[in-house]
Structure formats: structure tokens, C-alpha cells
Amino acid sequence: MRKNARKRKNEQAVVREPAGKAAKAAKNAKAAKADRTVRAVVRENLAAVRLLIGTAIRVDRRRGLLVLIVSPLLNVVAALQAIGLQWMVDGAVDHDRAQTVRGALLLLVVTVLVHQATAVATDVRLVLQHRVGLEFDRRLMNLCSKPPHIGHYQDPEFLDTAEVVRQRRGEFGGALAAFVENANLLARFVAALVLLITASPLLALLPLTVLPLAAANRWQARLVTAAERAGAEADRRRMALFSLATDPAPAREVRLYRLADEIAARHRDAFAAASGPREAARAKGAIAVAAGWLLFGSALIGGLYVVSRSVIHGSGSAGQAVLVLLLSTRLVGATTGLGWLLGWLRRSLDTVALYLRLVDYPHSGGTHGNAGADARGGADGAGTMLPPRGDLVLEGVSFTYPGRSAPALGPVDLRLPRGATVAVVGDNGAGKSTLVALLAGLQPVSAGRIAFGGQDLSELPADQWRARVTACFQDFCRFELLAREAVGLGDLGALDDPAAVRAALESAGAAEVVAGLSAGLDTQLGRTMPDGTDLSAGQWQKLALARARMRTAPALVLLDEPAASLDPGSEAELLRRYLRGNGPASDTITVIVSHRFSTVRDADLIVVLDGGRIVEQGTHAELFAQGGRYADMYTLHAAAYSTGPVVRSAPAEDGRKVAPGVHTELAVDPGEVALHGTNGQGEPVGDRAVGQAPGGQ
Ligand SMILES: Nc1ncnc2c1ncn2[C@@H]1O[C@H](COP(=O)(O)OP(=O)(O)OP(=O)(O)O)[C@@H](O)[C@H]1O
Predict the structure, then answer these.
(1) Taking CA 169 as the corner, what is the angle to CA 167 and CA 171, rounded to the nearest 5 degrees?
(2) Could you give the ipTM of this predicted complex?
(3) Model pLDDT for residues 557-584, shown as the tens digit of each residue
(4) I want to staple 178 with a disulfide (CB 3.0 to 4.6 A). Which of 104, 135, 252, 344 is the partner?
(5) For residue 7, pLDDT beyond 50
(6) Is residue 138 situated within a structural domain?
(7) Number of folded domains in the chain?
(8) Mutation pick for ligand 1 pocket among 157, 401, 436 (CB with most ligand atoms within 8 Å)
């Protein structure tokens, strides 16, 4: 029995020993991690302070130095008031007039100086604070808009951090104020403490009791920041819902579908999801902070009691007793102030640290918001020149969005010949817009390479390629500016050249849009602007097309659903300009993404995408003859536009496949049907060619 018990005990020990070692190792790892975390936090805070101070001095050197140095100094000088008072009281008690006058003078000079100089320093600080805030605004704008690629807008991690920073955007100027005010109070605290220590060295131990308080504050800040980051997605949802309820664009559907209550409810839920954990974190941290305060407060009051007692009952003078009382009041005031201000500083430094995280984000270029000034698409392209013309070649190109496992596009091999018009077709989500973004150099390829005239685009500064590209995107921008600016932006160099703007409008078929505006090119556009004129969706799109015409000899024109908002006449005009020899310079490659087969059939090359892969490519005739994916889509499209019962009347003469039930004539040229409609029997109305505008223009 006993033997068995001993054996069991030994076995347990054997089992326990590794477990003990593992626990120790885990403990060590945890300690190391905590140490790393503490070091990381300290590093982060120091970097934030450095950035704040550096920014203040960079935006306004004189004011920066005044606020950062003179302001805390004044708080040190203010402690001399207590000495002046001590001299006065001792002089009065000892009937020493000279001592009394010296004390009174010191008190007077210090009080006037501190009062006046503090008023000036506060004004200066307010101006500086404003400038620092503007500087961070500018940097944030650069940080988001200057990186060569737009990948950061697709990464939820970047978006979450950016959301928190955007929400706290107004706090950057305040961060400087928080830093200065804390430095002021700290200076006041230290000055009072040093003078008190001369009265009682025991008080030298007081700063030690601040440490638990500081740790508690830091812990609370970490909890709150973590909760804020966790709630950032819900916050983004909340902001999007707010925009949905307040923006003019969704106003019609919000009313039609009576969405107001639903949006408000979701907004409430999103707020609760974001703020609940934040409040909980704050409350949890507050308990630790309160305990820290209790400890520090007890030490402070206990220390002051000991000092006062020894001065009053000991050998101290009446003046010394006054000094101790006055300094004690300052010390307690500074401590209470610090308690409040430290929270402000802590949050401000967190905000600056978050901003620094955005700066360090891989897509940002890491140059404090000046990213992109010399941003490169890939390797250093200094000295490399883009050939004037050439084919655009994609070799094994693929692209995967952040957070996705499967590529949205690719691998793709494709040659876009110089001067060709290339149509890209495919179902929703096939990868067409992704291809457009890659061709525009807005996204770096995940694999493979894109070369123009044999030059790998990733080896060039992104701007060099983009200066040769022009585009009308699917979600084109409605620039709420003067009409001439909204178009002229397409070539900043020609922004103030009305002749260039008019030429672009003319060549995009958008001249009549501006002709109809009250002040022509000088009309303010957009309903959110005072006296702004709003345009129809099609008119906005025409201006976007005109913008894409500002660059007169681009290497590549990208048109992603350029006719989505256009009427048939305008669409036909667009085709005439881009597909029928009236487009940009003859060496220009034009890529048109469209679901409208009337738009694509005249392209030199048609590329069919499916699930991110090229499944077919060729001319309309070739692809139609193949009877594959393109032929299917084309015939479906034609059938969709046919209003009557469509009957296949005869087999196609050239033996092409025709979908059952589709009239041969539609299969031959449904573009005409799409543009002009049918007469109810499946017959196209009128005999105009596709490129003709209504009314035979
Ligand atoms: N920002 C993004 N983040 C993650 N996935 C994305 C993002 N944008 C697009 N995708 C995905 O990539 C795929 C291709 O999208 P893309 O916009 O290129 O398609 P498309 O062919 O242009 O579609 P459509 O005809 O509807 O405009 C889709 O599956 C889409 O869900």
C-alpha cells in the first residue's frame, strides 16, 4: 500500500515537474512579453512626444520655443512667491523692514511677471495649437491621398486605425496643449516639492508613490485604446449609417423604402457595439486609477502633515510655516490638476501614436504624410524613362485583395497592342475593375508584371506611368467645383486654360452640358455648395469623360462602364469617338469595360473575363464564331433587349451558332436593337447604323 502510495507520489512529481517548468517558462514568456509591451509603449509615447514637439517647432519656431520652454519656466518662477511671502512674514515677525520690503518686492515682481507672461504664453499657445492642428490635417490628407497605390483603402486594419484617427482629428492641436499644460503643472509640482524638501527631506520619497498611479493610468489608456480599435469597425458602420440618413444622394430611396427608423435602429446598435466595450474599459481602468490616487493622495497628505508639524512644533520660523502651507497648497493643486491633465495627455499621445502607426503602415510610404512626393510604384526608378509608345503586356499578372485568400484577378497573360481599342467584358465580379486599377498603376500586382513598350512598370516611379494614363472610372468623381475646374483637373497644367477645357468638352461630346449652365464654364457645380448647380448622373459622367480627354496624347485610356449613365445617342457618340477612329492619338491604347455589347463589338480586341481569368479573347467575329462564353452573353443581351417573342427565322448564313429562340437578325447585330429598341415583333426599329445618333445626326 505504502509502496504504491510512494510510487504514485513519484509519478505525480514526474508529472508535476515538467508542468512546473512549463508554468515557469510561460511566466517568463509572459513577463518578457509584458516587458516588451512596456518598452514598446514607452517607445511609442516618446515618439509621439518627439513628433509633437518637432511639429510645433517646425510650424512656428519662435512660438514653439516660447511655449515649450518659457511656459514651464514661469511655473518654476511662480514658486518664488512662497519665498517672498516667507521673507515678508519673517520680516514682520522680526521687525526687519528691509527683509519685509525685499519679500514684498519679490512677491510683487514674481506675481506681475508670472501673471502677464502666462497670459501672453496662453495666447501664443492657442495660435500654435491651431497651427499644429492644421499641420496634422495636412499630413493626414497627404497620408491618405499621396501614396502611389490605393491598397490602404482596401485593408480593414488601415481603415480601422484611420477611422479612429479621423474621429480624433481635432485632438492633434489639443495634444500640444495637453503636453504644455502637463509640463507646466509638472514644473509647478517639482518646484514646490524641491522647496518643500528643503524644509523636510522626507518628502523626497513622494515621487515614488506616483509610480503606481502612472502605471494605472497607462493600463487604463491601453484598455481604452484597445476597445476603441475593436469598436472601430462598428464606428465606421455608424458613420456610414449617419451619412445614409443625412446625405442627399440616398434621400429618395430612404423615403421610398421608409428606411429612416431602420437606419436609426442600426445606428443605435452600431453605437452600442462601439461604445459599450469602450465604456467598460474606461470603468475597469478607473478602478485602478482611483486606487493609485488613493495611495498617492494619502502619501501626499501624510507627508505634508509631518512637515507642517515639525515646522510648527519644531524650530521653524513663522515664515517657514507660511512657506510650507503655501507650497503644500500648490503641491496639492498641481497634483489634482495633473490627475485631470494626465488623462488628457495620455489620450492625446495615444492619438499621435495611432497617427504614427498610419505613417508606418506599409502602403503609406512612411514619410509622415509626405508619402508619394517621390513615391515609387516599385524599385527606385530614377533615371529610367518610359518609352514613348508600345504594347502593354501583362505576364502572369494576378492580384489578391488584402484579407482575401483567392485572387480577384489572374493569373492573366494579355497583350494590348499599341493603338488598339480593347473591350473587357464579363459578369459582375469577374475582375474587370480590378484589371483597370492594375493597368492604371493604382494597385501593385500581387504577382507577375505589367510592361509598357518592354519597360516593367513596377521599376518606374508610379507617377511617371500615371502621367501617361487617363481614365473615366465606374465610380467617377463628382467634383463640386467650377465647371471648368471639374474638367480641367484632368490635366493640372491646363487647369486655367479655357481653350483646352473647351476642346476636351468638345471631344468628349460634353460641350452641350456646359452650354446649358447659367454661367457656362464658371458655373459652380454641386448642390452642397452655395449657389451650386446639380447635374444629372449622365451629365456628371460626360464631364468625367471630358476630364479624361484633357490629356491629349495619353499612352492608355481606361473607360470603366463609360456609358452607364448615358442616353443611347450619347453612347453612340462615345463609340464613334473611341471605337471608330475618332478617339485619342493613334498610338493610344484604349480599354473599355462595358456590359453593353453594342459598346464592345467594334473593339479591335475583346477580352472575356470570368472568375478573374481570361476565358476568351479575339474580335467580335472570331468570338461569335467560337460560340463560347462571349457568344452566349452577346445573344443573351440581344434577347434581353428584344421585347416581342423572338423566333429564330433562319440559320445564320456563315454557320455561326445562334441561341435557340433568338432572331438571326438580332444575333447579327443586336447592338442596333440595344440602341434603338424593337417594334414589338422583335424587329429593330429604323435602319440607322450603330454609330449614328438619333435623328440621323
Ligand atoms: N476592395 C475590395 N476588397 C476585397 N475584395 C474586392 C474588393 N473590390 C473587389 N473585390 C472582389 O474582387 C472581385 C472582382 O471585383 P471587380 O470589381 O474587379 O469586378 P468587376 O468585374 O469590375 O465587377 P462589376 O461588373 O460588378 O463592376 C469580386 O469578387 C469582388 O468581390
Answers:
(1) 110
(2) 0.98
(3) 999 988 888 887 888 777 777 765 545 5
(4) 344
(5) no
(6) yes
(7) 2
(8) 401
